[in-house]
User: Which sequence fits this backbone?
């Protein structure tokens, strides 16, 4: 009965879907803890998607990977002189730089012109150790030089391989600098990292939360209402410069409805309450079922991408040492004990490829010939025994009076992940590993106090996905200085805490290797090292599933753009006069 009442509330309280009022209603299974944080200290996929409606960049890439200008007057290239490369006598690139000129009509949503100072302000905070950014690279080696009021050059030394394709971020200095100065004065002599982190959370929350919506944005839409646990509404920003011809013919309002239970999300699609589904929403099996029941009410899409489903193994802290999670043999044993081939066949009809590396087949850097860790129970038991774990009277492995009991977490409400957990839990129990399922909302899993603080022992195994543009793969997930710590303000994405000196050396070489063939060789070795030590248990590469109703145009994405919001200004209804530019591939 409770489930029925909850579902009824979702249906009756829904925003009106359809083109009647030129609006768009999108369903998603996750709600971001904050939005439009210029430094992306909340690294949740749904945050990135929603930010796409509100954000703007100097340049961007379309579904086909073509770089286009947005804030910048043109795309920097070697041909037009805006991109420059400096080589030494050996022909090796030692420095590169990109020059951008800001459009005269580029403005924040309050009408304030976007200036070079906004990029300088962003870069200053990006490189401040008190700011818990996901990764400071490559911006920690970048320097901005002001050429004139609207033109600046950003120089990378050592060079940045993707300097001409990835532009720096920006932040509204006229809105945020005073609060930053107050934060700076309060924390510049503070030694306690926890105190600094709490002050940062207060600072960023004053500009990015439901209680304190972003005061200004730069993109085609601006937030107007956020009902926590229910919905977020954005309206078209009339100040945005890169509008389509006749912008009134395109969507004027976008509402995201937060529906954490994916089965409820599916029912909302079937009942016509949604115009489209987010890239963060449906599971593969739900997509298959929905595709059988379309009846011209909606269309189901399966988009190939670089979405890597995996299980991080927490190798940090005393608990991890006691459980031998910091030993590669324990991680290998856990992987040999599960049958990933059978799992993907049972749940995904074999259409989601089993992974043995974090890099997927869509990338040119993908290495196929690594150890595939096929189910091998005998080998798993050998490895457990080699570590000193022996079966107790109840069949659970024990060592020095402690049981091999692991806490396994993922995002609650995701039906596929919960099914995967149950399957793996049973397979691990068969080899003597006790697994306790402890799930949390996505806002907790990806919040500031969970994955990044593994040394506290809050989690042993965490299942989630990394999504990455395969063009810009750098291997930075696994660099040892990317382990989040109090000393670096909990920046970095190496949540398992894996360290390997050879990997670090190869990573540094690959960062500045401009020859593709040589770069592939470096990544071959990096993947071989990673595969041998498996700091995370690779599961499979996901296909992104979503639906949209007929007549909704330019709501598309690819492995490169990752989210449908990349083309937010041009999303619209054909019946209202919106012109279709991109079709979903």
Assistant:
């Amino acid at each position: 009965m409770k489930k029925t009442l909850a579902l009824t509330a979702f249906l009756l309280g829904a925003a009106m879907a359809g083109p009647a009022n030129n609006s768009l209603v999108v369903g998603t299974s996750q709600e971001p803890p904050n939005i439009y944080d210029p430094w992306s200290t909340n690294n949740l996929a749904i945050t990135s998607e929603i930010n796409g409606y509100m954000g703007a960049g100097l340049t961007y890439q379309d579904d086909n990977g073509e770089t286009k200008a947005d804030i910048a007057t043109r795309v920097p290239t070697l041909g037009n002189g805006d991109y420059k490369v400096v080589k030494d006598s050996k022909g090796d690139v030692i420095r590169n730089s990109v020059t951008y000129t800001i459009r005269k009509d580029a403005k924040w949503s309050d009408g304030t012109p976007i200036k070079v100072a906004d990029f300088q302000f962003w870069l200053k905070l990006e490189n401040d150790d008190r700011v818990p950014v996901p990764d400071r690279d490559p911006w920690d080696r970048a320097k901005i030089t002001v050429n004139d009021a609207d033109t600046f050059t950003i120089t990378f030394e050592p060079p940045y391989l993707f300097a001409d394709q990835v532009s720096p971020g920006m932040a509204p200095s006229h809105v945020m600098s005073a609060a930053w100065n107050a934060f700076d004065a309060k924390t510049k002599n503070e030694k306690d990292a926890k105190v600094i982190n709490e002050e940062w959370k207060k600072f960023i929350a004053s500009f990015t939360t439901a209680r304190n919506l972003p005061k200004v944005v730069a993109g085609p839409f601006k937030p107007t209402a956020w009902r926590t646990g229910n919905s977020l509404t954005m309206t078209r920003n009339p100040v945005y410069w890169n509008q389509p011809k006749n912008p009134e013919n395109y969507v004027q309002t976008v509402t995201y409805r937060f529906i954490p239970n994916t089965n409820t999300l599916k029912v909302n699609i079937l009942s016509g309450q949604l115009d489209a589904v987010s890239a963060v929403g449906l599971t593969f099996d739900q997509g298959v079922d929905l595709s059988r029941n379309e009846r011209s009410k909606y269309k189901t899409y399966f988009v190939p991408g670089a979405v890597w489903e995996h299980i991080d193994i927490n190798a940090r802290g005393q608990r991890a040492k006691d459980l031998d999670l910091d030993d590669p043999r324990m991680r290998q044993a856990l992987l040999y004990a599960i049958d990933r081939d059978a799992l993907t066949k049972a749940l995904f009809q074999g259409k989601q490829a089993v992974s043995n590396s974090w890099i997927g087949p869509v990338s040119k850097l993908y290495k196929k010939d690594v150890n595939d860790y096929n189910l091998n129970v005998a080998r798993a038991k050998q490895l457990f025994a080699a570590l000193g774990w022996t079966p107790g009277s109840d069949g659970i492995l024990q060592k020095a009076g402690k049981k091999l009991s692991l806490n396994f977490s993922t995002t609650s409400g995701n039906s596929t992940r919960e099914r995967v957990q149950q399957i793996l839990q049973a397979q691990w129990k068969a080899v003597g590993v006790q697994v306790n399922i402890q799930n949390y909302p996505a806002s907790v899993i990806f919040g500031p106090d969970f994955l990044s603080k593994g040394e506290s022992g809050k989690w042993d195994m965490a299942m989630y996905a990394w999504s990455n543009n395969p063009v810009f793969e750098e291997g930075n997930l696994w660099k040892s200085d990317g382990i989040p710590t109090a000393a670096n303000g909990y920046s970095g994405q190496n949540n398992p805490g894996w360290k390997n000196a050879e990997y670090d050396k190869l990573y540094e070489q690959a960062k500045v290797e401009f020859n593709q063939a040589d770069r592939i060789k470096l990544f071959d070795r990096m993947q071989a090292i990673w595969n041998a030590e498996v700091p995370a248990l690779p599961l499979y590469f996901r296909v992104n599933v979503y639906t949209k109703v007929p007549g909704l145009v330019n709501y598309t994405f690819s492995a490169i753009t990752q989210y449908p919001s990349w083309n937010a200004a041009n999303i619209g209804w054909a019946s209202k006069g919106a012109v279709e530019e991109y079709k979903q591939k």
Q: What stands out?
A: The mean pLDDT is 94. The longest strand covers residues 299-313. The longest helix spans residues 516-533.
